[in-house]
Design goal:
The chain is an alpha+beta fold and 156 residues long. Helices cover 22% and strands 35% of the residues. The chain has four helices and six strands. This is MaoC family dehydratase.
């Protein structure tokens, strides 16, 4: 499967994966009320909570919090059911190269960069994945390099 796109809903284990594999998720539309609700609770900066106030801000308009983008990314990953036993992170580097705006439709694409079976825990290993969250114009709005714990297929 090296380099081929794989779809979610399959629950892949460590031995099912190979470097270069690409996976994709479903989509999520970012609505104004959702952006404001998230920001009011978790990141109450004016450019996330109020259109009029956002006009005089760095962005010049209402934009989603990067943490909101990260949360949507996580939901899309979990809903994809790509990895057996879920997405268990052990390390992450994240950047937000462009803002997410109301009406943007996000999707996630990931590429497996490295696979490292554990020597001390034979029931699992780690994978390093490049994860890009893209908008409807295929512009990267969030990029992560993350290391995930992945279980091996259980033996009978």
């Amino acid at each position: 499967m090296n380099g081929k796109a794989i779809s979610g809903g399959t629950d892949f284990y460590l031995e099912d994966l190979s470097v270069g594999q690409v996976f994709q998720t479903g989509r999520h539309r970012m609505e104004v009320d959702e952006i404001k609700r998230f920001a009011q609770q978790f990141d109450p900066q004016i450019f996330h909570t109020d259109e009029r106030g956002a006009e005089g801000s760095f962005f010049g308009e209402l934009v989603a919090s990067g943490w909101h983008t990260g949360s949507v990314t996580m939901r899309l990953l979990v809903e994809s059911r790509f990895l057996a036993d879920g997405f268990i992170g052990s390390h992450i580097d994240v950047t937000w190269p462009r803002p997410v705006k109301p009406g943007d439709v996000l999707r996630v694409q990931g590429t497996i960069l490295e696979i490292d079976p554990s020597k001390s825990r034979p029931e699992r290993g780690r994978i390093t994945v490049s994860v890009e969250t893209l908008n409807q114009r295929d512009e990267v709005v969030q990029k992560m390099i993350t290391t995930l714990l992945v279980h091996r297929r259980p033996t009978a």
